[in-house]
Structure formats: C-alpha cells, structure tokens
Amino acid sequence: MKIYKQQNAIILTGKAWQVRHMLKNYQKDYKFVKDWIAADTPQRKKEAKK
Questions:
Q1: What is the residue-wise DSSP string for 3-38?
Q2: Cα separation of the two ends of the chain
C-alpha cells in the first residue's frame, strides 16, 4: 500500500481492500479529499497492528 500526495491529487495504490481500508481511516480526519490535499501532513502515523 502506497500513498502519493501531489499538489492537486492523492494517489492510493494497493489492493482494493487496502485502499478501502485506508479511505475509511482517513475519513475520520478529513471530510473531503480537498481537505486532505490541503493538509500539511501527507500521511497519518502508522498505527500499531493488533
């Protein structure tokens, strides 16, 4: 799973279930993709695996 943050876009690569999982995680922090793009931090901190 890789996340690339560009000036006007965010690109998620990986398996479909990984992308859906990451989008659900980011949904907690950002309501819109444009908010995510405007944010200073490109990625969330890695969460410890359970």
A1: EEE-SS-EEEES-HHHHHHHHHHHHTT-SSHHHHHH
A2: 18
Return the structure tokens found at 47.
């969460």
CB atoms within 10 A of CB 40: 4
Q: Whole-prediction pTM value?
A: 0.64
- Per-residue pLDDT of 13-31, as tens digits, reads 999 999 999 999 999 999 9
Which whole-number Å values give the CA distances from 34 to 4, 7, 17, 31, 50, in the listed order?
Answer: 14, 11, 23, 9, 30
